[in-house]
């Protein structure tokens, strides 16, 4: 790996937390196992603080800290959770419970608030008047009462009251006790109203903002919108991409199974393996050795669509943290040049670290605003260009549920204009006959199909090019591939939502 410095280039500080973070959530909250196991107080984080050293933080202390930061300061839940889990040094099972509580509470926020509004009474002045930590404590406790069947009610209430006593005063702990006991007593009454229109019903049932549901109904239809919203509340799969420089996916699969892991080859990506039991795959020895990377299966399809060949010169315009850069370099047998650009100086290090871990020499990282890339290279310099664009991210809500609440509809227009400017700036750097792949991790038509159609109208020398899908086993993706565009929604294959378009310059 080589580091290139442009006029904007600066050395960055390490941000390994962020790098590890991508993998932390799926690993500690494996698909299909949302319930923490232990019923015994003091075990599995489900008990009261009584059996613990007085000041040792519990899983729920950690979860509350994260949720309060998210509520108060708009912190990214995944980053804050990672930081607080590191600081609190909880046992693995407690860390898993804290993770479940944080993500589940954020995922179900709309629905929980609807019920809470019924339970928090006049004297308590309503939800909006509560201090952020009190609101977060009530939300997370109600989440556990309603969604985590294997955690006993009394443990949830007693730990919430203990936390309230430690943090607040007698009045607050009394109110918390009253609200939660009332929730248990009135559980049968906590149902969603009937007769709502589709937008309101889906928004409330699956906890999504109404504006987003309205857009998705218009773009995908009511049924698909409902399936997408339901899928967004599922735990994401854990998938890894074999570093083909070290060996094919089949060999790695054998090895993992030999180590006792439950894993299978991806139905979507030739280099992918889905791991159903393995904890955080970014912490295993094979990751550090560079045998594989942790990556969602739909992300893996991007380098496949780009079809880079050994010896080529490739530009990755928005490359950090470098998952696709590394995949491209692996597919090229680490020959040729992969130029990896990102706007943010602190993210350059993440790409460097990936390349180093995977033993890649062909990756050259640099810092630049991709909207200015035409100043950096001569026209027609590259055989392949990847624009994995900054986007609204609505395909990855399962991994980052706070996106639902932090993004506004107006953000889509804003990010659309950045995407357009980058495409305008970089398309001239492609050689005739070369391929440009435009991808996003969103399912918004405006940022995807509409963006590509608009670009093609303005640039007659570019045409949609069939995506080579012969290696993608019976996924159904082959049906979409001849059009040159693929849109994957999170309900289809259990992957992140993604969009890929392949354009050829004639
Ligand atoms: C979707 S992420 C890329 C993910 C990456 N391709 C991967 O597979 O790991 C988009 C990236 O674009 C970067 N970015 C945002 N605006 C940019 C700009 N104007 N120029 C270059 N990079 C930009 C962000 O810092 C972010 O790292």
TrEMBL record:
Protein name in UniProt: 16S rRNA (cytosine(967)-C(5))-methyltransferase
Domain of life: Bacteria
Subcellular location: Cytoplasm
GO molecular function: RNA binding; rRNA methyltransferase activity
Cellular-component GO terms for this entry: cytoplasm
NCBIfam families listed in its UniProt record: PRK14902.1, rsmB
Gene3D superfamilies (UniProt xref): NusB-like (1.10.940.10), Sun protein, domain 3 (3.30.70.1170), Vaccinia Virus protein VP39 (3.40.50.150)
Gene Ontology biological process terms from the UniProt entry: regulation of DNA-templated transcription
Keywords: Cytoplasm, Methyltransferase, RNA-binding, rRNA processing, S-adenosyl-L-methionine, Transferase
Active site: 441
Gene: rsmB
Region span, Disordered: 1-54
Organism of origin: Paenibacillus lutrae
InterPro entries in the record: MeTrfase_RsmB-F_NOP2_cat, MeTrfase_RsmB-F_NOP2_dom, NusB-like_sf, NusB_RsmB_TIM44, RCMT, rRNA_ssu_MeTfrase_B, RsmB-like_ferredoxin, RsmB/NOL1/NOP2-like_CS
Main subcellular localisation: cytoplasm
Family: Belongs to the class I-like SAM-binding methyltransferase superfamily. RsmB/NOP family.
Keyword Repressor: no
Basic and acidic residues composition-biased segments: 1-18
Catalytic activity: cytidine(967) in 16S rRNA + S-adenosyl-L-methionine = 5-methylcytidine(967) in 16S rRNA + S-adenosyl-L-homocysteine + H(+)
